[in-house]
Amino acid sequence: MAKVDRTVLSISPVSSRADRRDFLGLAAALYRDDPHWIAPLRFEERMRVFGKNPLFEHAEVKAWVARRGGHPLGRITAQIDRLQQETQGNQAGSFGMLEAEDDPEVFAALFGAAEAWLRERGCTEVRGPFNLSINEEAGLLVEGFDTPPCVMMSHGRPCYPGRVEAQGYERAQDLFAYTLKSAFAPPPVMMKLAERAAREVRMRTLRRRDLAAELEILRDIFNDAWAGNWGFVPFTRAEFAELGKVLAALIPEDYVQIAEIDGRPVAFIVALPNVNEAARDLRGRLLPLGWAKLLWRLKVSGVRSGRVPLLGVRREYHHTRLGPTLAFMVTNAARVSLARRGIIDVELSWILEGNSGMRNIIETIGGTAYKRYRIYRKWL
C-alpha cells in the first residue's frame, strides 16, 4: 500500500459525504481557541451549501477542500449567479465560505482552483466573499474580531485580509455593522418629524395569517429600495419564501414594522432575535438536546440581543424630506418592540460604506459602527 506524502498539498472538489464532512467541520478546528467564534448550525450550513438553497435556481456553486496528508486545511466555494450577471450587466463570479490555516500555499491553492473554474466559464472578474450571495452573508471581517458575530453574519481570523490581498485582491466595498441600545432616546427633532408625518403615515405590524402576501410586499419594497445600490441582486420569490420560514418560526408579529401611506406599503423593517446568542454553547449541533435548549432560550428565557437584517424605503421617497422620517419611524417602532421583550443590544447590518443617508440616521439615533466587513475584487 502506497504511503501518503504528508508534505504535499492537494486540493479536490467536494463530491462525497467525507468531503462534505471535512468542508463543514473545518471551521471548528480553526477557531477552537477563539472565544468569539460561534459554530453555525450544522444542518443550516449543510442545506445552504449542499442542500435545497433557492439560490441554486439561478446560480451554480462549486466547493473545494485543501488537504495535506489527508488532513483538511482549507475550503472555498466559487459561484456564478446568472441573476447577478443579468442585473449588473457583467461577467463577474464570486468566491465564498473561505476558511483556512494561516498558510500562503493553502490560500494560493484555494484561490487558484476557484479562479480557474470561474475563468473556464467565462467570468472576467471575481468578487467576494459571499456565503453564498450578497443577500446572505457578505464580506470578510477586517475590524471587530473582539466580539462574536450576530445572527446571519460571519466571523473571521485576523490573518485573512492579508492572505486574500496577497492573491491580488483589492477592496471593492466596505460594509458596516452598527450596534445600538434599544433604550436609546430618539432626538426630539426626529420625534417631532415623526409626529408630523403620522398624520399621513400609518404604522402596522406583520399579518402572520397572510404571510405569503406579506412576504411579497416586503420583497417588493426591498427590491425597489435597493435597486441601483452597489452589488444589488433582487430577491426572488423562492428566496423570500425561505426567509418566511425563519420569520414564522422565530419572531413575533411586531418584529416586522410596515409603514403605509394611503393604504400602500412604502417602508418596512425586519428584526430578529440573535440566534447566535442562544446557540453559543451548542457547537452547531441540535441533536439530541440542542433543539430544546435553543427553543427554550428563544421563546421562554429570551435573549438580550437582536439584529435588523432588512430595512427598505421605496425609491420615490429617497430624496424627499419624508424618506429619512419613514426610515426612522419603522426603526423606532421596531426598537420599542425589541425593548419590550428584553432585547438590549441591537445590530443594524449590513450598511454600505457609501450609504451616507442611512449611516447618518443610525448615528443620529445613537448607533456606533463596531464591525467592518470588506468585499474584495480581482480581474481574471
Task: Give a short overview.
The protein has 380 residues and is an alpha+beta fold. It has 12 helices and 15 strands.
Structure description:
With 380 residues, the chain is an alpha+beta fold. It is 36% helix and 29% strand. The chain folds into two domains: 9-176, Gcn5-related N-acetyltransferase (GNAT) (Aminopeptidase, 3-Layer(aba) Sandwich), CATH 3.40.630; 180-372, 3-Layer(aba) Sandwich (Aminopeptidase). It has twelve helices and 15 strands. The protein is globular, with a radius of gyration of 21 Å.
Which class do the helix and strand fractions yield?
Answer: alpha+beta
Mean pLDDT: 92
Largest sheet: 13 strands, mixed
- List low-pLDDT spans: none
Helix content: 25-40%
Order of helices and strands: EHHEEHEHEEEEHEHEHHEEHHEHEHE
* Beta content: 25-35%
Number of domains: 2
Shape: globular
CATH homologous group name of the largest domain: Gcn5-related N-acetyltransferase (GNAT)
Radius of gyration: 21 Å
CATH topology term of the largest domain: Aminopeptidase
Task: Give the termini separation.
Answer: 41 Å
CATH architecture descriptor of the largest domain: 3-Layer(aba) Sandwich
Total DSSP E strands: 15
DSSP helix count? Answer: 12
Subunit organisation of the chains: single chain
The CATH class of the largest domain turns out to be: Alpha Beta
